Amino acid sequence: MLTRCLSVLSVLLVLTSSAQVLPDSVIRKIDRLFSNPRGNNNPGFTVGVVRNDSLIFSRGYGMANMEYGIPNSPETIYHMASVSKQFTAYAILLLERQGRLKLEDDVRKYLRWFPDLKEKITIRQLLNHTSGIRDQWDLNVISGRRMDDVITQDYLLTLLSRQQDLNFKPGDEYSYSNSNFTMAAEIVRSITGQSFRQFADSAIFKPLGMRSTHVHDDHTEVVPNRAYSYRPLDSVRYANAVLNYANAGATSLFTNIPDMAKWVINFYNTRVGDASTLEKLTTRGILNNGVRITYALGIGVDEYNGKRRFSHGGADAGYRTFVSVFPDEKMGFIVFSNLASANPAIKANELADIFIKPVVQTGVAQQKKADSSLSRISDTTAYAKYMGNYIAEDGVQFSYKMQGNQVYWTSPAASYLLARIPGDTLVSLFNPDIKFVFSSGNAREVIVDQYWPDNHRRLKKYSPASGHPAQVEKELKEYVGTYYSPEADVRLTLFQEGPTLLYKSSQSFTGKTRLEYIARDHFRAPGFFLKFVRNAKDELIGYHITTGRTRHLVFNKINANL
After folding, report:
1. For residue 131, which of 91, 178, 196, 82 has the smallest C-alpha distance?
2. Sign of dihedral through CA atoms 509, 511, 514, 515?
3. Inter-axis angle of helices 85-97 and 179-192, to 10 degrees?
4. Of the candidates 462, 485, 505, which is a domain's last residue?
5. Please, which residues bridge with residue 61 across strands?
6. CA gyration radius for the chain?
7. pLDDT per residue over 292-334, tens digit each?
């Protein structure tokens, strides 16, 4: 009881100090952004605003632990997910500053266990996400393991050591892969002889006074004042979103608002590293074709409301995080949530809008920010044929839906309202740099080209295969069998039950999973796409699995006529 009272008193003291710094009118605006209309007995947020060298606002909303009724506070410890990556990159840069590595070094100089894929992969390409290395989480799911299983560093290194191909030639493309930063953390270990946790603590956290921060590389470790994560079951109920990570580099940083504020301040009042280190961290990567991407070393670099910004988000289990730094304004905005359906990136932008006046712009981007009428489509009939589900070669799925006279784009993360600009082009109101150009070359093929500053992808409209059940049942028979991937070291066995094809992993203890029949040799499963491969005699010899971050992972049919 005494502990609970002290916790509540601590929160009240923080709120009082924040109220003394900011006008009541500003605090009310922030409260409206983060308060839950259903009350405080729900997962929520912790929020921080940094100006110059001070944390000028910090507050918790909702519950850090619903089982015990413990409220969120600025001191609540949160799992950072991918916000961790900038710290991994900074550790690499500190070693470079000491002359112990070069960013252009081949990763195999330090990681002899990584296979020789006949392409030089540099440390810089790891940190820019341009290496072409397949994503560890995708490989984990394909292998049949759950994301709430205990996932250790050694297990991830085993996965990575079996890679037999790259998604693309290093430097040709930007493709986000968590494997890159697991490998970067292992480079730190290889050079220093310390675990990544030990090095980050001595080189970054302690010098900055981040006393409540650590790399959580032991899933059994007890962490006082830790937030637990949740996912919504419906409008009123929640479930635990379990996380059992025991790995580091791509994720697993644990921290709170006051400590993260110290890291934010380091971007413009440097105490760890120097100006050159920060410049390297925030210099955008360059592809082999000379195109400059918006991702630097473990952090994104762009503009918001005409202001230069460094930012990154994170999502693991039910944890959602976003940290943005505006170096020229010497301000930072920190938003953590323990609810899977939360969107801290949007909240952080809305928080920044309260404090930073946008630069007056011209053109479509500014019009969309100022006038949401651009989202209203006058000729809804012309766009009706474009509504539906789309698939890209890399396995990404989007859908577009007309609601009234407005078009919404749904990605795996969230739904966004789109606005029309000249031509059959729609742009995201949230981020006008994301554009969609629709076209229909013939009656059977409708495509959309998605453009963003770093890249482009083409998606094709699809609908599940239709036909008489008896015909579908006949077509599915030839796909039945067992297939093996040496890279994932897993067998997937395909079964037929009437007009339905199902699969089961050799490493999974759950039941069979249904494959959606899209078209001949094309199937969809939760999280990946499956395309069968045939020999010159039109016989099935295997299939390739493609996800958003892993392409053409080979599964060979056992006893197939190769």
Report:
1. 178
2. positive
3. 40
4. 462
5. 45
6. 25
7. 999 999 999 999 999 999 999 999 999 999 999 999 999 999 9
Q: For residue 135, what are its two tokens? A: 């994503």
Q: Measured between alpha carbons, how far is residue 355 from residues 48, 301, 350, 429 in Å? A: 12, 20, 9, 21
69 is a domain residue = no
Other CB atoms within 10 Å distance of the CB of residue 20: 8
Report whether 96 contacts 273 (CB < 8 A). no
DSSP conformation letters of 350-398: HHHHHHSPPPP--SHHHHHHH-GGGG--S-HHHHHTT-EEEEETTS-EE
316 vs 242: CA distance, rounded Å: 9
Q: What is the CATH number of the domain that holds 186?
A: 3.40.710.10
Task: Measure the CA–CA gap between 399 and 389, rounded to whole angstroms.
Answer: 4
Counted domains in the chain? 3
User: Does residue 189 register a pLDDT over 70?
Assistant: yes
Asked if 415 and 372 sit in the same domain, the reply is: yes
Q: For 365, what's the count of Cα atoms within 13 Å in the CB-facing half-sphere?
A: 14
> Which two three-digit tokens encode residue 538?
């039109």
Residue with tokens 């069979």: 512
Please give the backbone phi and psi of residue 556, each rounded to the nearest 5 degrees, phi first: -95, 140
Domain that holds residue 317: 79-355
pLDDT in tens, 383-436: 888 999 887 776 677 899 999 889 999 987 788 899 988 767 899 887 888 999
> Residue 151 has which token pair?
């996932």
Distance CA 147, CA 149 (A): 5
CB 367 within 8 A of CB 374: yes
Whether the per-residue pLDDT at 443 is higher than 70: the answer is no
Q: Has residue 538 been placed in a domain?
A: yes
- The per-residue pLDDT for 560 is 59
Assign residue 518 the CATH number of its domain.
Answer: 2.40.128.50
Domain's final residue, options 462, 477, 501: 462
Same-domain pairing of 315 and 229: yes
What residue type is assigned to position 261 of the chain? A
DSSP H or E stretch at residue 259: helix 257-266
Cα 391 to Cα 532: distance, rounded to the nearest angstrom: 16
Distance CA 118, CA 108 (A): 11
The neighbouring-strand residues paired with 50 are 55, 332
Residue 552 to residues 101, 200, 446, 533, 543, Cα–Cα distance (Å): 33, 36, 24, 11, 8
Does a structural domain hold residue 4?
no
Residues 458 and 475 in one domain: no
**CB-CB neighbours of 71 under 10 Å:** 19
Q: Please list the residues that pair with 425 across neighbouring strands.
A: 421, 437
**Are 443 and 523 members of one domain?**
no
Say if 548 falls within a structural domain. Answer: yes
